[in-house]
Amino acid sequence: MGLILKNGIVFDPKNGIRGEKMDLFIKDGKMVAEKDLGKKAETIDLAGKVVFPGGVDIHAHIAGSKVNSGRLFRPEDSRMRTVPRTNVTRAGSGFSVPTTFLTGYTYSEMGYTTVIEPAVPPLKARHTHEEFHDIPMLDKTGLLLLGNNHQVIEYLKAGDIDRCKEWVAWMLLATKCYGIKCVNPGGTASWAWGKNVDGLDDPCTHFEVTPREIIRGLVDINESLGLPHAVHLHCNNLGTPGNYTTALETIDSVKGLTNKERSVLHITHLQFNGYGGDSWRTFESRGVELAEKIDKTPNITVDTGNVCFEPTTTMTADGPFEFHLHQLGKQKWINFDVELEAGTGVVPYEYRKDVSVNAIQWAVGLEMVLALKDLAKIHLSTDHPNGGPFTCYAEMIAWLMSKKARAETIATLHDAVKSKAAISDMDRELDLFDICLITRGTAQTLGLANKGHLGIGADADVAVYDIGVEEKDGATIERAFRHCAYTIKGGQLAVKDGKVVNAVTGRTLWIDTKPRTDVIEKDLRKRFEGYYSVSLDNYPVQMDYLGESEMVMERCKK
């Protein structure tokens, strides 16, 4: 049976639709023309309601070994939110690190249908896919940590781009991931020796390769492989005063590398690199300056990494940063290395309104969006759960759409936010088209052609919100975006009136890079026999680990 969504007020940035009253038609999990609907169809009247494509979260830590470590590490977080089972859903718990099933239900209740796990250590990919299989309601995929992979760095040091490209291609196919992730390039590798890197030209310990060389090398490889998404980069010097200069230099580092279809570099959770000052005492926002730089620079996209004032669990493959955070807050701390591939840390943290640094951090993420002219270049995120849980998105949207809501919050913050950030003087208020763009245009940045829009042939992922087009009341906006009127996933009604009514199954997305294994076979055997704790034959993730899956791209063998 098909589905007719009647009389909705539709927003679809990819197709230039700005609040038009329209009927939409769904059949076999896809958006179709009315003539192709067939004779049997159910109708849902959406008069007075706003219709978006399903939300696409470009960066949220929802699955894998560090996420599970965060759950085990923080029983107090589990007690902060417990949800009983229903006739449709399973029980769940966790506030900043919810259980797998609760993750899927909560995202769906907010109108999100696709989420990207942005940091998969290759050796831990099997565990990540097991959790993907558990998470309902969502399509998922993972970005593979390669910026501190020892073999990648050795190839780059030798200038052997061709073999490095095939190593990357083999890794992506073996782990069934979607794209390249680079975290504190050179810094996490140095952390194995208790060290870090300070700038783009600071050599990585032992390997003597610089972050600049790693970034440019991986961007070259990404473009040569024709991957759908740009290199997804967590910059060096994250979370330190004055680090905005590192972000500016990183943006400039890929000058001359172009792609007509998309950006060549995506800088993630940029808020954490938007800091001025030379100490915590002189700490200030540089969000506006970064926005101006992004507007002027082609082939760069970013996501925000906003913070909200909630207790949370920080987790990142940037081991040195987590140790620094542990020292600052004297909180408990996990650190571990994943053999020759990556490292990570986990530390609890709470952003507080009465702390000057936290108040300014809150401003930085909002300022970048409000100052940016080309909103297609920026996407909403909290770097879940690092800046706060993804459940804060509704509150973020209210702050972006309502100056009054921002002012009410500013009045509760440390006074430093008024003198060391620009947020108090910013009058801009985003409209629903803008919000749709920064939460759904994400699909175009990721290269997911069938997502983030409502055109013919798109996946029938739809979110319906009970909100007026001109609404400016912060509480009303937040309420509408926290609990969808309807969420439709793959053509099936999944959420009604903010509650899950059908626990649908999502898919795992992956790419087939068709590596030329003969080019690197000798290196593969040597590396696995000499250093790895698993055999080469047992390393790749088998297809049956993926459950329902979809291959998004196939590389043509050259």
Fold and architecture overview:
It is a single chain. The chain has 558 residues and is an alpha/beta fold. It has one domain: TIM Barrel (Alpha-Beta Barrel). Strands 1, 2, 3, 4, 5, 21, 22, 23 and 24 form a nine-stranded mixed beta sheet that branches. Strands 6-9-10-11-12-13-16-20 form an eight-stranded parallel beta sheet.
Walk me through the topology.
Elements: E1 2-12, E2 17-27, E3 30-32, E4 41-45, E5 50-53, E6 55-57, H1 65-73, H2 75-80, E7 82-83, E8 92-93, H3 100-109, E9 112-120, H4 125-134, E10 139-145, H5 150-158, H6 161-175, E11 179-183, H7 187-191, H8 211-225, E12 231-234, H9 244-253, E13 265-267, E14 275-276, E15 284-285, H10 287-296, E16 300-303, E17 311-316, H11 319-329, E18 334-338, E19 342-350, H12 356-371, E20 378-379, H13 393-401, H14 403-410, H15 416-419, H16 432-440, H17 442-446, E21 462-465, H18 474-482, E22 486-489, E23 492-496, E24 499-500, E25 508-512, H19 517-530, E26 549-554
Parallel strand pairs: 1-4, 1-5, 6-9, 9-10, 10-11, 11-12, 12-13, 13-16, 16-20, 25-26
Antiparallel strand pairs: 1-2, 2-3, 5-21, 7-8, 14-15, 17-19, 18-19, 21-22, 22-23, 23-24
Helix pairs in contact: 5-6, 6-8, 6-19, 9-10, 10-12, 13-14, 13-18
Summarize the structure.
With 558 residues, the protein is of the alpha/beta class. The protein is built from 19 helices and 26 strands. The mean pLDDT is 96.
Report mean pLDDT, rounded to a whole number: 96
State the domain count: 1
Count helical runs: 19
* CATH topology label: TIM Barrel
- The CATH class label is Alpha Beta
What does the radius of gyration come to?
Answer: 22 Å
Overall body shape:
globular
Q: Biggest β-sheet: count, sense, barrel?
A: 9 strands, mixed
What percent of the residues sit in helical stretches (DSSP H or I)?
25-40%
Structural class: alpha/beta
Number of strands: 26
N/C terminus separation? 43 Å
Unreliable spans: none
In the CATH hierarchy, what is the architecture at level 2?
Alpha-Beta Barrel
Beta-strand level of the residues, as a percent range?
15-25%
